[in-house]
Design brief:
287 residues, alpha/beta, six-stranded parallel beta sheet, 9 helices, 16% strand
């Protein structure tokens, strides 16, 4: 099976290439192969390639910058997604599209199920939700997998940012009143391959198991990095509130996703985020 992975430069696309099944040929496209802002070319380019399946790991993900670049965010998160869906429909091949916890407002106090009402707070979340709706309208056989707080060793993400800051500063303040679930890109990628293999459709959720605040996640990164010898200095990490760290875009205060149905459908175990973090830190040490 030949699978087209869109979003080559991103950490998820790299994880998809690293975890692909042995009987699968994965071809990753980035801007060089197909500029997704050029929506008029998308459908023809994908049809010309003729993949057996598509995983869309591309997106406009600059949450704060989206507030000042709504047109660009919409072009990548809505218009491009629509054209990708049209190509998959014409080819009649499975399509897996990755979405986000930012489609929710964070006012709920229990884990969000896939069918819970969406109410995004900012441009990024709004465009991702619009992209979901456009995709399902264009190709109802597609699968959407929402995820959150994704990180991977060797990529630009929260973990790498924290480790860089811990290497430079003696004290850090990290937001403690936003709650979610840190998710290894490698685990997410493995689940997406299973979604593709089982030809699932509709909306699903996946994150690693457990919950944490950004402060909790930072403390765990610090602890495991020290234990692995990746970090060799002492840093004080202080909890702060969202109000202490204002950003252009409003984040959901609670964005834990209920992944039970997808774990059952793909027979994927509930891997706790702390176990996944230990694995990712160990990869940093190896490299």
């Amino acid at each position: 099976m030949r699978v087209l992975v869109l979003g080559r430069s991103g950490q998820l696309a790299q994880a998809l290439l690293a975890t692909r099944p042995s009987d699968t040929e994965a071809r990753a496209w980035g801007r060089t192969e197909l500029d997704l802002c050029d929506t008029g070319r998308i459908e023809a380019a994908i049809q010309g390639f003729g993949p057996d399946a598509i995983i869309n790991a591309s997106a406009y993900t600059a949450v704060d910058r989206a507030e000042s670049e709504p047109d660009l965010a919409r072009a990548l998160n809505v218009d491009a997604v629509t054209e990708i869906a049209k190509a998959a429909r014409v080819l009649s091949v499975p399509l897996v599209h990755v979405s986000t916890d930012f489609v929710f407002d964070g006012h709920q106090s229990k884990a969000y199920a896939p069918e819970d009402p969406c109410n995004p707070l900012g441009v990024y979340g709004q465009t991702k939700r619009e992209g979901e709706l456009a995709l399902l309208q264009a190709y109802s056989a597609a699968a959407i997998v929402r995820t959150a707080w994704v990180y991977r060793a060797g990529s630009a993400n929260f973990m790498s940012t924290m480790l860089r800051l811990m290497g430079d500063r003696d004290e850090l303040g990290v937001v403690a009143d936003q709650i979610g679930a840190p998710t290894s890109a490698d685990n997410l990628a493995s689940v997406l391959w299973r979604v593709l293999d089982r030809k699932l459709s509709g909306v699903w959720h996946y994150t690693d198991a457990g919950v944490a605040s950004w402060y909790d996640f930072s403390c765990a990164i610090y602890r495991e990095a020290k234990r692995a010898g990746v970090l060799n200095r002492t840093v004080s990490i202080k909890p702060i509130s969202t109000a202490d760290y204002p950003t252009p875009a409003t984040r959901p205060a609670f964005s834990v996703l209920d992944s039970c149905s997808l774990r059952d459908a793909t027979e994927w175990p509930a891997i706790h985020w702390q176990s996944a973090l230990i694995e990712q830190i160990s990869k940093l040490k190896e490299n």
